[in-house]
């Protein structure tokens, strides 16, 4: 029997990954008599060619969709899901040439960039306005607003929004070092020094360090830097009604963050090999390598699962807030990042847009979303480590798009209480197609600043903003 391949689930992943296979047909009757209409959904998140047939979870989906379709009277509709490998452009072009171009695409923020830049996405505003569930206020408008593009149009719908980003700290190291969890940047730096120079793992070697981050200049460092910049309320960009996207990271507070990170880097608090580590998730590395004392951002949606799979659940704890300083803590001035799951987008080349919209009505219905969240064997695969174990991990969606969907999956009540404190401080950044290119340009400048190629943080941020604007506005 052919071995099935498990596809890693990325940190900002969602229900879409659970339904990703080579070909899955959701048919309402015998395949020998295909229905007159079909909607092809193209999953854009496969890094390899999946093998094998449908899983038990796919069988559940087929059954649930049949029941829903029968209630709606959709007796002549089929949904077909296909996964393509290769670059985003190759996937889309190959599908079109084969006569199987997608009506709907499941895409990450980065993959969304290609489609939005090419003007291939059908805005969903008009369809939403005609949908009774939207009219009745069943959708979370804050989550929906984060799905808007440069013109303010809704580009796609996510299953849910991740929990706000928090920090994870080695509780066993805190105990050994006789320290309380850090509350401010300065307290964190003192703890990172102890992790780096006081041998918290007790093996007699200097092989530990304070904070796990990545210096990947292809945009990865900005993910590590995000919780610090958001903490001083300097998200990367914002949308202005008149000027479109504008940089929001060039502030005096952001300059102080860069100086703080540079000084910690000079002290070796991120590890001696931080500049040469291969690209990858710093937060997953924190749990897997067990060499650093703290990391962020981590999200409650997957924190416990990854900690358990790496044997770290009893050695770590969440730090909800890391305030820039005591004044910020006293004045309650803070910010936190969050991310959307993969978006389902309708393509302008869809053969039948009204029919395609039925897919959205089905997939984002209360019946479907409620059942998918309540199903305790749902195969969420989070990152390389869980995938290597070949295990399914049930995780609670933090903030579903639908307001009337409750998540009955279990979550650690203490963890939930800690993270709920951060919810009011979330800063939502709208979708921006050019962000992958812009983030790489910004990242290159910031890492150059750490290596003394810019005299001051302010000058580095000025150059980063200039490059940001050049990418958005063109030459």
CATH class of the largest domain, please? Alpha Beta
Any idea what the radius of gyration is? 23 Å
The CATH topology annotation of the largest domain reads as D-Maltodextrin-Binding Protein, domain 2
Roughly how much helix do the residues carry, as a percent range?
40-55%
Class per helix and strand makeup: alpha+beta
List segments where confidence is low: pLDDT < 50 over at least 5 consecutive residues.
1-36, 45-58, 374-394
End-to-end CA span? 56 Å
Q: Could you give a short account of the major beta sheet? A: 7 strands, mixed
The CATH superfamily of the largest domain is known as Periplasmic binding protein-like II
CATH architecture assignment name of the largest domain: 3-Layer(aba) Sandwich
What is the total number of structural domains?
Answer: 2
- Count every helix, treating DSSP H or I runs of 4 or more residues as helices: 20
Q: Could you explain how this protein is built, in words?
A:
This protein has 475 residues and is α+β, with helices and mostly antiparallel strands. The protein folds into two domains: 15-161 and 341-411, Periplasmic binding protein-like II (D-Maltodextrin-Binding Protein, domain 2), CATH 3.40.190.10; 166-337 and 434-473, D-Maltodextrin-Binding Protein, domain 2, CATH 3.40.190. Helix content is 40%, strand content 12%. It has 20 helices and 14 strands. Strands 1, 2, 3, 4, 5, 6 and 13 form a seven-stranded mixed β-sheet that branches. Strands 11-8-12 form a three-stranded antiparallel β-sheet. β9 (237-240) and β10 form a beta hairpin. α19 packs antiparallel against α20. The protein is globular, with a radius of gyration of 23 Å. The protein starts with 14 loop residues before the first helix and ends with a helix. The model is unreliable at 1-36, 45-58 and 374-394 (pLDDT under 50).
